[in-house]
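Example 581, ligand NI-FE active center.
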Amino acid sequence: MAERVVIDPITRIEGHLRIELETDGQQIKQAWSHGTEFRGIETILHGRDPRDAWAFAQRICGVCTTAHALASITAVEHAIEAMPPKQALLIRDIVCSAAGIQDHAMHFYHLHALDWVNVASAASADPAATVEFARSIGSTWKGNTIERMTAVRDTVQGILDSGQLSIFTGGYWNHPDYRLPPEANLMAVAHYLDALEFQRSIIRIVTVFGGKNPHPNFLVGGMACSIDQNTSESINQVQISEIGKWVAETLEFVQTCYIPDAMAIVGVYKDYFDIGASSPNYFAVGMIGAAYAGDPNQAPRHPSAAMSVKAGVIFNDDLSNVQDFDPEKISESIASAWYTYSDGGTSLPPTKGETNPNYTGAKPPYTWLSDKEKYTWSKAPRYDGKPIQVGPIARLLLAYARGHARTVELVNDAAAKLGISLKQLNSTAGRTLARAVECLMEAEMLANEMFPAFIKNLQGGDINVFDQSKWDPSSWPRTTSGYSLVEVARGTLSHWVTIENGAISRYQAIVPSTWNAGGRDEQGVRGPYEESLAGNGRHPLHDPKQPLEPLRTIHSFDPCLACAVHVLDPDGNEIQVVHTS
Ligand code: NFE
């Protein structure tokens, strides 16, 4: 008999994602993805000066603030035909990369690793054997010392002895499907702590160029940072050499710590390459960091390694037939979302998009939302009417299909080591692996291409980071519109703006987590989160009281529901309600 299971909230941060499941035995048969908070930042933007939009739009999220600011200024620049200087665009690439790498590392270690790593087990590990284990998986991370492992083991033991698990409270530490030996668990917990330090360190790159983080400063027409190598008030030689060190540290961390850890973990949980397959359609406009003002089929505004892969769409897992990307095929369905459209329909393209909230769900505190047609605050974006997976997996598959040499090399190497096929990348473990591989390529692009190009330009005397020719609204058309497509950590982010008489009259953001978290459309076709859990009726769920397996799968998308839903927060006749933390 079908049993109902509710997991709410589902993430450690951005906690307004709820998953409702129907199971039979130990298998998931049906799934619904719910964004349970309306935010409506787009509405706040109406009537404002488009040059200020980035500062509001970046408040869509507390994680990918840089991503939204960048998408916003790029959309506005498209509308008013502003062209930032090359050095400003390069600084944006550097900032975007630093933020993207931080985001991926933070996701792997702090938001996902404990789905696979048992912290409690780490207390029984032998530190010397742990160092040996790290060596055996190819980790040459400088933190792999007996002293460090001993200290971390003692810390974990101290936490367990205190009975207060602090940041590790709420884990399902007695779940039978934690498979790593104690030494692997201790190594991973040590790296979890090291990654906290790493992500704090790398984000200083954003802080220097953007003035602060989160919510760094941007500028329509350029960047808000002035550069003068010889003055203390500007970005100067001291800061530039510090950034050089952080860039090198970043590559070192990803190469010696993140990649070996990710490979080792997905290697132990190899059956997860056959679990969690989702909607087999993908698109991307390039590699992570690619940023287009308008149609990605036009030549990019500046050379960027991230844009060396041409935008494209893959349907039905068919990598042999990549189709051209057409922004006009994007629409957002509200068939399952608590909104109305003024034409009475359920689907609109973003250029005509609307954000009219209309909650028709159960009165809180509710127990079950999925028995109504509308059940979420997340719209359901569609491309050519189809649900699309966006994110590292989409970018990796597109780059592979397009023959991008480094991608082909890394993917083939990982697949050979793990004994998996390319098709198996559409899975829980595949999305996690794709993120790690992509992070390595992004760190390589940052260290080997973007930062050296910035330095070379500086050496040539190029310190121009702002073009003011389109700053004054009198230089803009009376009515104009524009959009951006930017590849950020969780997938393709697009902002769409219409400007009338110098003020914003329409603003829409279609966000990576909206693509992945959205619900069913007019045809009843599930969104990617839902499909990953209910697609084949065989997704495991061993114990409804400890829903570790569906958490692994949903976390593999790196959900951010603050972004997805872009003000109302109800609490939650299920058989089981699980509160995760
Ligand atoms: Ni709130 Fe975001 C990213 C954006 S959401 S984290 O990356 O845009 O999917």
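Summary: The CA atoms of residues 141 and 256 lie 5 Å apart.
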